[in-house]
Design goal:
- The structure is a single chain.
- By secondary structure, the protein is of the alpha/beta class.
- The chain has a single domain, classed as 3-Layer(aba) Sandwich (Rossmann fold).
- It has helices spanning about 1-5, 20-30, 45-55, 70-80, 105-135, 155-175, 195-200, 205-210, 220-230, and strands spanning about 10-15, 35-40, 60-65, 90, 140-145, 180-190, 245.
- Helix 2 (about 20-30) crosses helix 9 and helix 5 (about 105-135) packs parallel to helix 6.
- The chain is globular.
- The protein starts with a helix and ends in a 7-residue tail after the last strand.
Length: about 250
């Protein structure tokens, strides 16, 4: 019975930014639970394809740069084509641009908003249309951030976008619940990925970060991936509109 609660056999998951880091980890974890995977990104992702195949399910790649404008209904039709449908959407793709507040450029603001918020919404909208039309009791999982709750420094556009992701998660959850579609978000803490390598290599900064994490370690990609499986699975059917920190207790400190 417990296994059935997390069984994704016969489901298809569309994962954005699946080439590396958290995106690849979530794609592989969903594959391990039985889902076929469509990886969406601007660049080839052969390592993800191999890892999904090793997990025992099918993989299709969809080349799409979320930094650009798209007809997302067409993008979703292309994503659904390989395996016939989309049951799960994981909005993982994101970028970050750093500069002092006084120097932050409009170009950087627009680039971050386009990928992290605008594309996320319109892709979700198109997937929701697909799910509603097909009578699919789907799952949408957004990747938020600790900066959905905090202000950070030198990343104003990223903070604004991630606050927006938290708000959109709740707004979409309200409207899609009558269709049997849940919408939730994961807010990763300090995870040992390429994005945090510079922090981990700075002894002073790394020490400050570890000193605040009650669990006493950096997170691993798998910590976030298992949360994605839960939010995609039958087990979480009564969870919607939630933003779930996976942060080792950082926000509780």
């Amino acid at each position: 019975m417990a296994h059935a609660l997390f069984d994704l056999a016969g489901k298809t998951a569309l994962v954005t930014g699946a080439r590396r880091g958290l995106g690849r980890a979530m794609a592989v974890a969903l594959a391990g639970a039985g889902a076929d995977i469509v990886g969406l990104g601007a660049n080839p992702m052969p390592e993800t394809a191999d890892a999904v195949a090793e997990a025992g399910t099918r993989f299709a790649e969809l080349r799409c740069d979320l930094a650009k404008q798209h007809d997302f209904d067409r993008v979703v039709a292309d994503a659904a084509a390989p395996f016939g449908r989309i049951d799960i959407l994981v909005n993982n793709a994101g970028i970050i641009r750093r500069a002092d507040l006084a120097d932050y450029s409009e170009a950087d603001w627009d680039a971050v908003m386009q990928v992290n918020l605008k594309s996320l919404f319109f892709l979700s909208q198109a997937v929701a249309r697909h799910m509603i039309a097909g009578g699919i009791a789907g799952r949408i999982v957004n990747v938020a951030s600790l900066l959905s709750f905090q202000g950070g420094v030198r990343v104003p556009a990223y903070v604004a976008a991630k606050h927006g992701v938290a708000g959109l998660t709740r707004a979409m959850a309200n409207e899609l619940a009558p269709h049997g579609i849940t919408v939730n978000a994961i807010a990763p803490g300090y995870i040992a990925t390429d994005n945090t390598e510079a922090l981990r290599n700075d002894p002073e900064r790394a020490g400050q970060i570890l000193g605040r994490i009650p669990v006493g370690r950096w997170g691993e990609s798998g910590d976030v991936a298992t949360a994605a499986v839960f939010l995609a699975a039958p087990a979480s059917g009564y969870v919607t509109g939630a933003v779930i920190p996976v942060d080792g207790g950082w926000l509780a400190r």
